[in-house]
Amino acid sequence: MRTELIVVGAFITLISGLHLLFPRFFLSFGKRWMYKDATPTDTAVTFMRIIAVLVLSIGIVMIFGGIFADKIHSLVYTSEDVPEIVIYQ
């Protein structure tokens, strides 16, 4: 188990989940002080949700990759795959 992958994946999943639930808040997060009563367009909200779903899936893959890292490594790399190192003198 790789704890750092699980922690980073959980953080990415949390942030992208918040972006998915509240896209209008995050789209206007840094620009509220510049404009009065500015609202993001529907296209921007849709694009934000699409990006949030993609990043959410990356976070979920990172979490599962961290949980099953040892099993994946043993499936991919076997002792026969590792080349023998020969040092000539």
Description of the structure:
Helix 1 (3-21) runs antiparallel to helix 3 (42-67). This protein is mainly alpha-helical. It has helices at residues 3-21, 23-27, 42-67, 69-76. The protein contains four helices and no strands. The longest helix has 26 residues, at 42-67. It has one domain (3-76). The protein is elongated and about 75 Å long. It is 65% helix and 0% strand.
Keywords:
89 residues, mainly alpha, elongated
Produce a short descriptive summary:
With 89 residues, the chain is mostly helical.
Classification by helices and strands: mainly alpha
Number of helices: 4
Instruction: Choose one word for the global shape.
Output: elongated
Strand content: under 5%
Poorly predicted runs are: none
What is the helix content? 55-70%
User: How far is the N terminus from the C terminus?
Assistant: 40 Å
Structural topology:
Layout: H1 3-21, H2 23-27, H3 42-67, H4 69-76
